[in-house]
Design goal:
The complex is a heterodimer of chains A (about 350) and B (about 350). Chain A is mostly helical. Chain A has a single domain, classed as Orthogonal Bundle (ABC transporter involved in vitamin B12 uptake, BtuC). Chain A starts with a helix and ends with a helix. The radius of gyration of chain B is 20 Å and the shape is globular. In chain B, helix 5 packs parallel to helix 7. In chain B, strands 1-4 form a two-stranded antiparallel sheet. In chain B, strands 2-3 form a two-stranded antiparallel sheet. At the A-B interface, helix 5, helix 13 and helix 15 of A face helix 7, helix 13 and helix 15 of B.
Chain lengths: ~350, ~350
Amino acid sequence: MQGLHRTAGFGVVIALILVLIFSGLRYDGFFSEYNVLSVLRYNSMFALVGLGMCFVIMTGGIDLSVGSVAALGSVTAAYLSPYGLIPGLFGGVAAGLVVGVINGFVIVRMKVLPFIATLAMMLGASGTALLLSGQQSVPASYDTNFMALGQGDFLFLAPDWVISDDAGFFGNVLHVLFSFPIPAWMALIAYGLGSLLLNRTAFGRHVLAIGGGEEASRLMGLPVDRTIFLVYVMSGMLSGLAGVILAAQFGAGQPIEGIGWELFAIASVVVGGTLLTGGKGSVASTLAGTLLLGILFTVLNFENGMGWISLSAYWQSVLRGAFLFVVVILQSRLVRTAQA
Amino acid sequence: MSTVADKSHPPAATPQTSIRRTLWSLWSKNHAGALAALAALVLFNLVFTPNFATMQTLSVNLSQVCVIVIVGVGMTLVIATGGIDLSVGSIMAIAGALSPQIFQGQWFPVPNLYLAIALGIVIPILIAGLFGLFNGWLVASFGVQPIIATLILFIAGRGIAQVSSNGDLQVFKLPEFQQIAIGRVLGVPFQVWIMLAIVLVAAWILRRSVFGRQVLAVGGNQDAARLAGIPVARVQLLVYVISGACAGVAGLLVIAMNSAADANLIGMGAELDAIAAVAVGGTLLTGGRATIVGTLLGALIIQLVRYTLLANGVPDAAALLVKAALIVMAVWLQRQDRA
């Protein structure tokens, strides 16, 4: 069993690399700066939501409220954006925190199934977002540097010789790093911290132990309630952060965005090889899973551009479903082989 | 948990009393709470909402509740086995998007109008059932958790519906077909009769048939059910097929009401409404105890709460908050009951 999620996680990385090689050879401009950066910028939101979902699922739970929490976070952040970057950022995350605390309370204290508690919260958060915004998108302020959270990069910090045309190889590498979008940095840092949290802290071990067997963990004296409470708080905060990026990227708080995000996040976690029953999982392959699902959409766009086929945008959900199907079947096979 | 359900088994009935007993047995004292809530809502509306006690109000509310109840019936059976079906909304979209293509003769020429309508009803429901079979196959043969197994069609199903119709709004004018939703029998919309028929049949199946007992046994304790010789896989397959077919019927009702099919919108959020109705109705969400009549009451309560809020000028967004609180309360009360 130990090697199981590693195998699955390894699989998704291989698949990601194969898709990248295939697309790089097939489509001109797939690795153009514009395309790479826009893929990173857009998918960083999903990556953040997926990270929270990954922790929740590893405890054997589920968080269906992430999409509407992101919507709520984006509305809150947009309202606070005239006061600057920091209030907007913290406001959105705080909105997510409040939702996460309520989720955790309902699940741990009221002992309502995670699935139902977060389903109700999905309605509740979305209702709150709609009430706050008067059912309209809330324009975020362009006067402050809030938009940097969604669209910015660190290029302004780069020394002149890096940006110049004859920067040389090292200069080019630095150039790429400096032009890396800020939301992508946030996602990367969050994943780094998440990975440390899972693999190097007692909290991380508790998460996996609880997913492996909640009763057993309780009998062993692990802080089960506290850990479960915390993963929902974490998921809420990360979704709120994704909402902040959403508002900054599109220049407005979007009360009706986020529909279906929870399913996309669950799909990325599963594709990344995390066991849905909990107890096994990997933060890094969740990131790979998010990128893989996100890139499939880009590939579809490029394929349409080639003119050989013309698949409408509707095909992307069919393809995502088909992809999830293959992964789920593989995962169930792997589990069986491991148990046999 | 299956023993809880067994308690409601009435003693052996003589043939003369069996029909009455059958109908009576669909009732259960567990519905008292839901019924009291419903009565309180009606009373509140009679006092505070203008023009509440009119045929039109009744008709509007019943029409809107039909779709939720029909989807909810399938959902109740799935949840009774300890499963969940997230794909119902997408399956509604598939059935709704395919039907006009069939009765408008885009697939194959149909000589007769009534034959076209019959095919336009039967084929989409069969296809919806097949998609349900796909869900059941994943759950029963591969042991995939239901929430994930049905997530696949939740994502892909709407895509299939959109691809099949190119994402276009399909408008049609076919009064003969629309009768299934808006035609009236004894002054009551025909879709209400369809709903009642489905509720009665399903309630009877769950309470009185071997299959119904098996459904509850699987939900109560799957391993014990398997050891007791119950064909667990077949039961699981069947409940998802039924859920898919119910969603198909609901999809047809939606397009018949609107006289248009929009694959992007049909059944959007139907899974939430159905699950909410099931939870509020008193079905145990972990499986093993279920009530179809409860789901009907749950759907009525949710619809009436929404109507009450809207009729008294509360925005729809606030109604969402109330619905959320309602679901959590219902499930929490369930837990208190069992403890």
